[in-house]
Amino acid sequence: MLLLETAAKMFNERGYENTSLTDLADALGITKPSLYYYVRNKEAIFLGIFEITRSALLQAADEARLNHSTGLNQLKAFMTTYMDLTSSDLGKCVIRMNSIVLSNENIQALKEMKQEIDAALVGIIRNGVQDGTLSTLSPKIAASAIFGAMNWLVFWHNEDKRSDLNMIKEIYLETFLKGLEKTP
Questions:
Q1: Distance between CA 40 and CA 47 in Å, rounded?
Q2: Strand partners of residue 134
């Protein structure tokens, strides 16, 4: 995990293309051959970061569905966890590295993993529409709007103002939850 966390931090600070495996080995205090014992290449590191993030998000969606009785509360729980995760180095890395060049095989795997996360949020929104706590003409479009807003936070939020992040998360929650909440 230390390897992936260190790599995510370096990818965020320097960029994926500007971070070499030598840089990563130096930051970890190991030799480059030792690093190759654990990973094949930089692409495998990024995929490992993405897999950890994907697993955490799918677990968050499952927990939201199990621990909250309404779609509205499920959505709030999932969005809160999503924003917490994507404000970490691992989450930021996944969001920021959308444009890296991957092999065709890994592009397809990444696409399928993203579809799982999309489906989880769409499912939560559908739950809310079915139980009458949310209202939308299209759960898929609502999910895309929510992901777009939450993902963009990684690009414009100034990390030096970390205390503002909690306020921003609350505003996002209020905006989306009130916007989707079904009113009598």
A1: 11
A2: 181
- Kindly compute the dihedral angle of the four CA atoms of residues 80, 84, 85, 91, in this order, to the nearest 10 degrees: 120
Each of the 184 residues of the chain gets a pLDDT tens digit; together they read 899 999 999 999 998 889 999 999 999 999 999 998 889 999 999 999 999 999 999 999 999 999 999 999 999 999 999 999 998 999 999 888 766 777 888 888 888 889 999 999 999 999 999 999 999 999 999 999 999 999 988 877 766 655 577 888 888 888 888 888 888 7
CATH architecture of 56-180: Orthogonal Bundle (1.10)
Tokens 């480059």 sit on residue: 32
Question: In the numeric block, which tokens belong to residue 9?
Answer: 């931090």
For the chain, the domains span 56-180
Considering only CA atoms, which of 67, 65, 53, 74 is closest in space to residue 173?
Answer: 74
